[in-house]
Amino acid sequence: MLENVVKDKFERPIISLRITITNRCNVNCLYCHHDGMVQSKDEMTADELYTICKIAKKIGVKKIRLSGGEPLIRKDIVEIVEKIASLDFKDISITTNGTYLEKYAKDLKEVGLDRVNVSLDTLNRETYELITKKDYLESAKKGILKAVEVGLYPVKINMVIMRDINQNEIKDMFKFCKDNDIVLQLIELIESENCDDDKFSEDYHYKLDDIEKELADIADDVRERKFMQGRKKYYINGGEIEVVKPVDNSTFCANCSRLRITPDGKIKPCLLRNDNLVELISHIRNGESEEKLEEIFINGINKREPFNQD
Ligand code: SAM
Known about the structure:
Elements: E1 16-20, H1 46-58, E2 63-67, H2 77-85, E3 91-96, H3 101-111, E4 115-119, H4 125-132, H5 137-150, E5 155-161, H6 170-179, E6 182-188, H7 200-204, H8 209-218, E7 221-225, E8 231-236, E9 239-244, H9 250-254, E10 258-261, E11 266-268, E12 278-279, H10 281-285, H11 290-302
Helix pairs in contact: 1-2, 1-11, 2-3, 3-5
This protein binds S-adenosylmethionine.
């Protein structure tokens, strides 16, 4: 699997590329770390995204994830996935709020999308509205079920756990997931620079360590995913729960194999830093050669260093 993969200076292979294809969104989650602000006319086009992925493929990237904003808000989302899929990656996935998934799941599957992660923090209508400011819970649920139906696999639900908002809903969400052959990912709330309420993370942060202890007690099996930032998977009663804890976690950094592209077309070497971005899209728009673009990618990779170290 790691054949021809470029490694950074810390011997971390660059296996996956996560591209923020828009930062427009149709919901407004209270914890969201909105990724910059780009007008839709300046977003990377399907052809530009194809070029980025072509270079990524050349340097050995195996997996592409499209995110946002809400990636399915882009009217050309099927074309984008089709173009990227023609490059024959091992895995192409999308992170979405699911509200447009009922409309697009079948077409996306047909053009080569492998799987989706759907962000859904609650199954309760009022709580959904409190978190997203929209009444779209039913569309999100329909989208999730459609994704399962058309064979996107695995479908995962990303549930950000917030104290006194949804921490008591894990059991219900796990049942929904288990009943529908969906993997549940519990995500620890991280501090958000752009959050309207500064104290939000402080007030609602809920450490997942205690939940993990409970899961370990009832799990039939527990596995650690080395190249997925050391995150743990708990197998319970035929269902599956993953726990994602990015805060102050040196294991997260030591095993990070992911490079990112910002919505305005810059290479982002580290999730937790914005001061070492590398300009990419203007070079593509200026018609630079693939060799030059490859060099720019390598330059971005050379800037990678673990944010948290032991
Ligand atoms: N609109 C898409 C969606 O809803 O999945 C993609 C963008 S969203 C920013 C990507 C993921 O980041 C979601 O799973 C969301 O729950 C997570 N996320 C956003 N802000 C977060 C925060 N402050 N802490 C933890 N996870 C967060």
